[in-house]
Amino acid sequence: KTCTVRFDNNKYSVLSTAVGRPVEVHAYAEKIVIRQDGVSVGEHPRCFGRGETIYDPWHYVPVLARKPGALRNGAPFREWVLPAAMEKVRRRLKSVHDGDRQMVTILG
């Protein structure tokens, strides 16, 4: 499962808890809001391109508990800019055995 919703030829990420259940997509001029049972499960700047995927990496943090290696290689995390202190920890843990799992614990 990719934790995404397709709208207007693009994909937008949603919380992993929203997968497999109906959602409502509210499109505004500058943003997309995705709701499930009246609760926001995703909000993104609206993309007017085609075939693009817009990620919020925080939507995928719960999934990392099962796949910690995705933190290094997964599409939602490739361009993720963490706060400076968190990025420093992430760089340090890259060279440590089980560093991905440790970073996932910190993020969770």
From TrEMBL:
Pfam families: Mu-transpos_C_2 (PF22483). Residues 1-56 form the Transposase for insertion sequence element IS21-like C-terminal domain. It comes from the Bacteria. This is IS21 family transposase. InterPro entries: IstA-like_C (IPR054353).
